[in-house]
Structures are given as structure tokens and as C-alpha cells.
Amino acid sequence: MIFNNIINEDLQQIIDENNGLEELYGKTVMVTGASGLIGSYLINTLVKLNEDYDAKIQIIPLLRNLNKLDKEIVNKKYVTPVVQDIIQPITYDGNVDYVIHAASPASPPLMREKPVETNLANTVGTANALLFAKEHNTEKFLFISSREVYGQNISDKKYFKEDDLGIINQLIPRNSYAESKKAAENMCLGFNEEYGLDTKIIRLGQTFGPGMNINGGMVHTEFIKMLLNNEDIVLKSDGSSPRTYTYISDAISAMFKIMLESTAIVYNAVNNENEITIKELAEMIVSLYPETNSKVVFDIEEEKEGYDYATFKFCLISSERIREELKWNPKYSIEEGFKRAIDFLKMTE
């Protein structure tokens, strides 16, 4: 098959943890943002279902650049790519049973440099996906959202739960990502209430794994890029900011659980056991590959922005709801996950 051992193990985990995904057999599934980390894992899972389980799923990947989709997948008879920008009305005319909307800017530098494009992708893009789902009588619609919708914590709580609120300054251009994700969530709820469209929302934290773009400008991808180049890992802050990292197969498994099993609309899905500061993350990545002789060093300048600089302190979010209601139990520790992701990158260099 087209997948190497690491990817194949991940896909099998996703299938096994979701009752074989039998509810998708014989259905048509559209995935927007199909060339990104999340989108490609979703597509690969569906391909594996067809190849190994004869699931007879029609797969509709929507993406801007067909060259970013594996040629072996493109040539499958059950795959019908739709090549377009999500800010344009979706042009596919066939039946679609499930829409998973993963198209969104994922690069912090892009969010800073292109706030208008970021906003349009998350607002107009989501509106187009929702309108398409409504017009095609789609059974389920899953929106991939973000922890950033919570903004700055204004209480003494350590973790945000799904109904908690923070503050986001809409007058700062970089906040286009957080504000537009919030607007997109509101549209999902609106389509649910006004038109009866069965919408679901998953809010992710830092999600990583094989196939991620190491040029995306995120903290962990910058660290990995330095490591792969046998360079020291350079911290541009004191590294005290905490993050929660979720391995990609655990995140995808959560998505299918929410889309296929949930009663509530909104769920956080992060591996709370993988909470770590930026400094600790850098030290951990270095410790996984001592043969590189890389070390952690600091390059802090006053007013200097870090790799994924945001205009508010990132919150931590709680996954208590999905763990209790849907029995989601993420498999990979942060060390195991990053070892898998980096080993994959080293194999494909």
C-alpha cells in the first residue's frame, strides 16, 4: 500500500478506535484543506478503509494545489479531487454525505502578514462549506476550530472548558485568526439552528505528526527544523509559556468520534497529559536525538517576537467532556509522538 509503517499504524489506530468507521461505508465524504496535516490524514484514513476493508467510500478532497495530493491517491477511481480556493463557492455537483471542513491558514507568520486572507479563509470559506452542505443535504458537518477562540483568560482558572469565555482584542490584525474562527463557529451553530444542519465543532490545540510542514513557523516545527539541520535549538523567549501537544492520530480519532457519535456540538480535544513549556519542549526534542549534539540556547531581544507570536497568552483547554462522553483516550505521549514525527521526517528527507 502507499503508506509507510508509521502512517499505516496511525491509520489503523484511528479505525480501531472508532468501531471500524463502518458508518462511513458506502458514503461520500468531502474533506476541505485536503493537503494539510489534518486533511491528508483524514484522506489517508478513508483510502485505507477502501483498500483494506472494501468500504466503498467516495472521497472528495478539496484543495488549491493538486500537486500536494499523493499521485497514487489522485489516480484512485473512488477519489474525485476538487481544485479551488475555499473562498469561492464550492463547484462539486455530486452527492455528499459528510463534509469535514479543515481548510484554514495554519502558519502564524501568515496570520501576521496576511490578516485579510486569514479572515476570509475562515469566514467566507466556512460559509461556502456550510452553504454547500446545506444545499446537498449533508448528514454531518464537522468544523475544525482552535483553542485560540478562547483568547486571553480573565479568571483564575487554569483550563478553559467548552462554555468558558476569554477576551480577544479585535483591533489587532494578528487576531484575525482567532476572531474569524469564532465567527465560523457561530455560523456552524446558526446553520444548525436555522436549517437543521447537523454541525459539530472540534477545538484543537497544538497538533503535530508525520507530514507536518516544518516551514510553517510554529514553535515545534522551528525546533524540529533546527534539529534536522544539526543546529542548536534557539529560544527567542524565556520558554516559560505552556502548550498542550496532541499527536495527529489521536486528534483524528477524536474528530471521527465527535462527527459520528456525539450529542453535543462543541468539544475540546487536546492531550492534557502532554502539557509542556516551550523550554521543556526544546530540551525534550534535543534529548530524543543526542547524536545530533544539538543543545538549547537563548537569543532573547527586547520586543522580539517569538516564532508563533500571538497577541494574548495562550490558554490551556480541558478535554474532560470528550473523555467522559465519548471515551476518547489519546494514545501517544509527547515523547513518543515527536519521535514518530521526526523519524518520519528523517525517512522522507
Jot down its keywords:
16% strand, 349 residues, alpha/beta, seven-stranded parallel β-sheet, single chain, 39% helix, three-stranded mixed β-sheet
Summarize the structure.
The protein has 349 residues and is an alpha/beta fold.
The count of DSSP E runs of length 2 or more, i.e. the number of strands, is 14
How much beta, percentage-wise?
15-25%
Q: Order of SSEs, N→C? A: HEHEHEEHHEEHEEHEEHEEHEEHH
Number of helices: 11
> Which oligomerization state do the chains in this entry correspond to?
single chain
Cross-sheet strand order for the largest sheet:
3-2-1-4-5-7-11
Share of residues in helices:
25-40%
| Low-confidence segments | none
User: What gyration radius follows from the Cα positions, in whole Å?
Assistant: 19 Å
**Structural class estimated from helices and strands:** alpha/beta
Mean pLDDT level: 93
Largest beta sheet, briefly?
7 strands, parallel
Report the principal-axis shape: globular
Distance N to C terminus: 20 Å
Topology:
Elements: H1 5-16, E1 28-32, H2 37-53, E2 58-63, H3 71-74, E3 82-83, E4 98-101, H4 108-113, H5 115-135, E5 140-146, E6 159-160, H6 176-195, E7 199-204, E8 206-208, H7 219-228, E9 233-235, E10 242-247, H8 248-261, E11 266-269, E12 275-277, H9 278-288, E13 296-298, E14 316-317, H10 320-326, H11 334-348
Parallel strand pairs: 1-2, 1-4, 2-3, 4-5, 5-7, 6-14, 7-11, 8-10, 9-13
Antiparallel strand pairs: 10-12
Helix pairs in contact: 1-2, 1-8, 5-6, 7-9
What can you tell me about this protein's structure?
The chain has helices at 5-16, 37-53, 71-74, 108-113, 115-135, 176-195, 219-228, 248-261, 278-288, 320-326, 334-348, and strands at 28-32, 58-63, 82-83, 98-101, 140-146, 159-160, 199-204, 206-208, 233-235, 242-247, 266-269, 275-277, 296-298, 316-317. By secondary structure, the protein is an alpha/beta fold. A seven-stranded parallel sheet has the order 3-2-1-4-5-7-11, with helices on both faces. A three-stranded mixed sheet has the order 8-10-12. A two-stranded parallel sheet has the order 6-14. The protein is globular. Helix 7 (219-228) runs parallel beside helix 9 (278-288). The two termini are 20 Å apart.
